[in-house]
Specification:
mainly alpha, N-utilizing Substance Protein B Homolog, Chain A, 2 domains, 15 helices
Length: about 325
Amino acid sequence: MISRRLLRVKVLQLLYAYYKNQDRTIAKAEKELFFSVGKAYDLYHYLLLLIVDLAFLAEKKIETAKNKIIPTEEDLNPNTKFIDNKVIRQLAENRQLSGYASTNTITWTDQEDFVRSLFEKLIHSDLYINYLESDKNSYQVDKKFVEKFFLNFLATDEDFYSLMEEKSIYWNDEIEFIISMVLKTIKSFDEKDDENTTLMSLFKDKDDEDFMKMLFRKAVVNHKEHLDMIEQNTKNWELDRIAFMDILIMELALTEIMEFKNIPVKVSFNEYLEIAKHYSTENSSNFINGILDKMITDLKTDGEIKKVGRGLIGEK
């Protein structure tokens, strides 16, 4: 589930904390790294549970209305399209979702006010009104509603972002990515799926887990060597005046380019330029572009970059 881009960002953030912490050990930092990635997986389950809780709240309100002393016609014959949504039912019955939530105490019960507030916004939204009023009833219609809920409704709710950032410092930079993973999950659902349907795993495969761990370790081990290389290529700059984050981004880029034989240089180069745009200063991307490009050229000339795999041998 976690993309290589997010894994790189997680390592960058941990590397920053590692060098800023006087009481640091690689073992402690690695433990924190895996905890940070695990929090992203928690968020994935939180979001899937949210629409289930909204449907449960809608169901409770319908039952309460029916039990009024003098119920109206609408109270007695409510529109149940939302609570009968087939995709939401699949999520509510999914064993992996409920099991993970139970084991890791993932719940919205401590945020009842927010859930009620969000529900009120939802039922007054065009998305909800149009869905209930439509005479189209099918699994695909239900799925499309859930997709739009996450993409067009939740992803634009400022109160939701504020709450998530309050709940965990680890979620500040990854909410949009996790929403995209939730959408990918929903899109993969089929009408025939049952309670045993598998959700996304934390890592796409063992290679991604090893990539994250090795990237961090190799960056720490080669810190002095890479720092000297950066200093040699920034002679017109005093190293202590270069943004610390810029230095770490270049260190990570060098680590990946030199240590991971099966990742094309261009892929690593472009990834860290994109990361620089979001996690460093305004001009960092252009600065890092120039310095990295020069270092890579020199490393290739000296034969220090060796790639293996289809189409990578002798890569220039």
